[in-house]
Amino acid sequence: MKHTLQQVFHSGKFVVGFSIFMAVLLIVIIYPLIITNRPLQILSQGTFLPPGIYVNVYDSLGSTRYILLLDDAAAKRIASKLSEDDRLAMQKWLVATGLPENEVDIQDTIKLLGQWESHYDPQLNVAGLTNAERNYYIRLDVSLDGLLSTEAVIIAGKNPDTGALEEKRIVELTDYVNVSQVANVRVLPLGTDNFGRDVLTELVKATAVSLEIGLVAGVIATLIGLTLGLLAGYIGGLVDDIIMFFTNIFTVIPGFVLLILISFSIGQEQRGPFTIAVVIGFTSWYWTTRAVRAQVVSLRNRDHVNLSKLSGHSIIHIIVTDILPYIASYVVMALILQISSGILAEAGLSILGLGPRTTEVPTLGLMMQWAMIYQAQILGKWWAYFPVIVVIALITFSMNLMNTGLDQVFNPALRE
Amino acid sequence: MKGYRKYFLNKLLWFLVTLVCAFLLNFILPRLMPGDPVAAIVARLAQGMSNATGVQAIYQQYADLFATNRPLLEQFFIYVRNVAQGDFGFSFSQYPRTVIDVIKSSIMWTVCLQFPAIIVGWLIGNTLGALAAYLRKGFDKVLMPVSIFVSNFPAFGMAVILLVIFAINLKWFPTSGGYGFDLIPNWSWKFVWSVIVHYQLPFWSIVLIIIGGQAIGMRSMSIYELNADYVKYSRFLGIKDRKIIGYVFRNAMLPQVTGLALSIGTMVGGNLVAEIIFSYPGLGSTILTAVLGGDYPLISATTLLITLMLLSATFIIEILYGFIDPRIKAAQSD
To answer: Does residue B43 sit at the A interface (CB-CB below 8 Å)?
Structure first.
C-alpha cells in the first residue's frame, strides 16, 4: 500500500492534477471560514457591477482628510473622463458643425474643450446623427462639465429646522482619504451577478455544492457499477446474462436523455441538489459495471482464486480478499471519472433549465444558466460566466490528470 | 457471409430491444411520479393563462392524449397508436403549432450540425493521436496536455469562449441563430451564405472538444499496438516500416470505431447544450424552450427522437464495423 502510494506520487501528471484539485478544495473549505457572508445575499441594486473595490462615498467624506500633491492628478482626471474615442467623437461633431478640420486638434485638451463649449448645442440637428449618438453627446457634455475647474466642491446639507442648505465640508482637488480608515469598503473581486450578488462568494459556495453533487453521483454510480460488475463477473451464468442485458441497454440509450426525462418528471419543487446527484448517479453506473465485469472475468480463474475456493471460503470472502484488491486501482480511477462527469452533467442539466431548484444554494451549472439567461456573454460581463467555466474546467482537468497519472502507474504499457 | 449475417441479425435484435426499452422508459418515467400528471402539467401551464376555457380545453386534450384515467396497459396502447401515427399532440409553449411541426423545423439543424461535427472531430482527433504516438517527442509533449485540457472542457464553456472571442470581440461571425434574423429561409445565395457563416462557431466548438478526447484515446491505443509482439516480429522479418505502421494504425483504429459508436450519445448530450449558447435553432434550443414553458409533449417527443437518432447512428456504425474488422466474422462463425 505504501509502495503503491509512493509510486502514484512519483507520477508527474497525478501530482499536478492532485495539487490543482487540493487547491480548489482548500479554497472551498477555508474561504467560508474567513468570509461569512451569505452566498445568495443580494448586495447591489442593478445588475452586473464590475469587479473592484467599492468605497462608500458618504463615509469617505466623513473620514480624515489628507492632502497629497501629485503632479499627474489633473491629467488622470481628464483622461478618465475624456478617452481617445470621446475626443474623436467631439472632433466629428465640431467638423460637422462647420469648423475646418485642421483647426480641431484633439490632443490639445484645453483648446478642444474651449471649442466644444462654444460650439456644442444639444438642440442643434446634425445630419446623419442617430438618436443613440445624440444621447451620447448629451451625456458627454454633462460629464465634461467642470472638467478643467480647479475650484473646490462644497458639500452641503439641509438644515432640518429651516430647510436651508448649509455648508458641511469643502472638498479640494488635492483631498484624499485612506481607504483603510473609511468605515464601509466592500471588495468585490468578481463583481456582482445579474441579481446583484457577490460572484466570488457565490462561486465558492457553488463549487462546494457542485463537488458534493459530483461526489454523491460518483459514489452512487461506482457502488452500483461495482456491485453489479462483481456479481455478473464472478457468479456468471444467468445472473451475468440478466445484468449484462440491462447494462447493454443502458449503454446505448443516451444517459443525457434519461437525465432530462427524469429531471423534468420530478418537477422543479422536488429537485434539490441531492436529488439531482442521485439521479445522475443512477443514470451513469453502466460504464463501471462493464469494466469491472471484464476485469473480474479475467481474474475469476486465476490460481489464487481457485485455491481460495478449494479452501472453502465464502463468496463474499473471496470477492473481498482475492478479487477486490486487484481491481481497486481501477475502481478508484472510475470513481474519479464519475465525479468529474457528474459535475459536468449537473452543469449541462442546469443550462437546460433542469438543474436544482434555485432558491437555496447555487451550483456551478445554475450560475452558468443565470449568466446565459441574462446574456452576460453578449453584454461583455465576463466576470459572471468566465470564472465559472474556469472552475469547472480546472476541476475536470485536474481529475482527468490524476486519472491519466494513475493509469500510467497501474498500466505499464502506457508509461513514457 | 454467414458470419456477417449472424452479426447483423444480432445487432439488429439489440437495436430493436433497446428501442423498445427507450420507448418504454419514455412512457413510464413521467407516469411514475406521484399525483395526477395531467393536473400537474395543466397547473404548471395555466399559471400564465387567464382564459378558463383554454385551460379546460388543454386539460381535456391531455386527458385524451395520456388517458391517465384508464389502466396502464390501455394507456400504453393509446400512446403507441398516437406515436405510430406521428401524433404527439399540440405543443403547449408554442400553441397552436403541433409538436411534430416544431420538431420538423428544428431537427435538420441539429442533424446537420452534430453528425458532421462529430465525424470531422473524430477524424482529426484520431489523426493527431496517431501522429503523437508515432512521432512522440515534442509533438506529443505539446499535444497531450492540450488534448487533456480541451477534452475536459465543458462543451458549453468552449462555446461561450469561442463566442466571446470570434463573435463579440473580433466580430468575424454572428453571435446567435442559424441564419440572419432578417432573412426568410430559401435557396438564395445570400441565405445559404448566412447559414454557412452562422454554422462556423457552433461547429468548431463541438469539433474542438471531440478532437481532444479522440486524440487521447487513439494515442494510447497506438502506443499499445506499437509495442505489441507482432510489430517486433514483423521487424525481425524485415517488413518495411511503412507497411507495419499501416497494420498498427488499422488495429488501433478498430476500438476507436466502437468508441465512436458508444460515445455518440454522450457527445450529443453535451452538444445540445452548446447549441443553446449560440441559440442555434436545433433540438437543444427546442428542449430549452420546452423546459422553460413546461411543455411536456414537446420534451417527450424530442427525447424520443434524439434516442431514435442516436440508436440508429450507433447501429449503422456497428454494422460498418462488422465489415471493417475481420475478427468479428471469425468470432461469429465459431
So the answer is: no
Other C-beta atoms lying within 10 Å of the C-beta of residue B329: 16
| C-alpha cell belonging to residue A54 | 467599492
Tell me if A413 and B30 make a contact (CB, 8 A cut-off): no
Cα separation, B296 vs B299, whole angstroms: 5
Q: What is the pLDDT of residues B275-315, one digit of tens each?
A: 888 888 888 888 888 877 777 778 888 888 888 888 888 88
Select from A255, A262, A377 the Cβ nearest to the Cβ of B265. A255
In contact, A14 and A402? CB cutoff 8 Å:
yes
Give me the sign of the Cα torsion angle A24, A28, A33, A38.
positive
**d(CA A65, nearest CA chain B) in Å:** 42
Peptide bond into A39 cis (omega under 30): no
pLDDT digits (tens, 9 = 90+) for B163-179: 888 888 888 888 777 77
- Alpha-carbon distance B291 to A353, whole Å? 6
Q: How many other C-beta atoms are found inside a 10 Å radius of the C-beta of residue A57?
A: 9
pLDDT mean across residues, chain A: 85
Please state whether beta strands A175-176 and A66-67 pair in parallel, antiparallel, or not at all (unpaired): antiparallel
Is residue A188 left, alpha or beta, with left meaning phi > 0 and alpha meaning psi from -120 to 50?
beta
Chain A interface, mutation test: which of B225, B303, B312, most A Cβ atoms within 10 Å?
Answer: B303
pLDDT digits (tens, 9 = 90+) for A357-400: 877 789 999 999 888 888 888 888 889 999 999 999 999 889 98
The single residue listed with the C-alpha cell 452500483 is A224
Distance (Å) from the alpha carbon of A262 to chain B's nearest alpha carbon: 7
- The mean per-residue pLDDT over the stretch A310-315 comes to 85
- Element spanning A55, H or E: strand A52-55
Residues A367 and A373: their CA atoms lie apart, in Å, by 10
DSSP state of B49: -
Contacts of B32 in chain A (CB under 8 A): 265
- State residue B36's pLDDT score: 60
Apex B34 CA angle, A247 and B28, nearest 5:
35
Angstrom CA distances, A117 to A114, A167, A250, B235, stand at: 5, 29, 74, 87
A261/B157 CB distance under 8 A: no
Q: In 3-state terms, what secondary structure has residue A52?
A: strand
Query: What is the least distance, in Å, from the CA of B270 to any CA of chain A?
Result: 7
Interfacial B residues in 256-295 facing A (CB < 8 Å): 262, 265-266, 268-270, 272-273, 276-277, 284, 287-288, 291-292
Angle A324-351/A199-230 helices, nearest 10 degrees? 140
* Amino acid at residue number B197: V
**Contact between A194 and A376 (Cβ < 8 Å):** yes
